[in-house]
Amino acid sequence: MFLRKAALIATMVFALAGGARAQTNPVVVELFTAQGCSSCPPADAFLADLADRDDVIALSLHVDYWDYLGWSDPFASPEMTARQRGYAGYQNVRSVFTPQMIVQGVTSEVGHRRAAVLEAIALAKAAPAAARVELQQEAGRLRVTIIPLRPGLSGIVHMVNYDVPQVQQIPSGENIGQTLTYVNVVTGWMRLGTWNGERMELTAPVPTMGKGVAVLVQENTVGPIFAAARMER
């Protein structure tokens, strides 16, 4: 399902009725979560609060390694599990866990520890900006402009599409009987290109479904996020 949705990005377009949300160097928060994880609902609720902030790009990435506990998460994908394991390797950590929040590609926190996550967001916001991303819709395509603010950097340009809020009844597993709401569930992730540290423009089709898209400029597949922006319906 995840790969099929991601493939749609390359072939189909739609008009985003909204524009880029007001933001100045928004901080990216990635929540690695699962419907089969009994510790995750408080973190999912916290992410929903973060998603309301203009200065935060909040993304929900569902992993599949808890599916064996009696409930298969319909939002989970091996790609998101691989991304989380990539962060573990980057941080020289052997194991992964849920709920985990990664702030700006660097700081790892337990996802329901609000004070620690909010502190990490504040520190990321206070850091000097390395680059700026500008998004503009033109004739059904997304124009991405990357403006360097610091010399000597390079990285990967990622495009992420994410969904409208989803309400899910959990009939089995650790969260049996609960009705949970998930926001900004990632449904597609693709690499737009490589950034060489200079001013750069890229274009890409935008997805036919969902709430919006985010563009991240990151040191590599994982690692520090230099800049990000989003555009929503």
Q: Would you write up a description of this structure?
A:
It comes from Pontivivens nitratireducens. Pfam families: DUF1223. It is a single chain. A hairpin with a 2-residue loop joins strand 5 (131-138) and strand 6. This protein has helices at residues 2-9, 41-51, 78-90, 114-126; strands at residues 27-33, 56-62, 100-103, 107-110, 131-138, 141-148, 155-162, 166-169, 179-182, 186-195, 200-205, 212-218, 225-232. The longest helix has 13 residues, at 78-90. The protein has a domain at 2-128 and 162-187: Glutaredoxin. The chain is an alpha+beta fold. The chain has four helices and 13 strands. Helix content is 19%, strand content 36%. The protein is globular and about 50 Å long. The protein starts with a helix and ends with a strand.
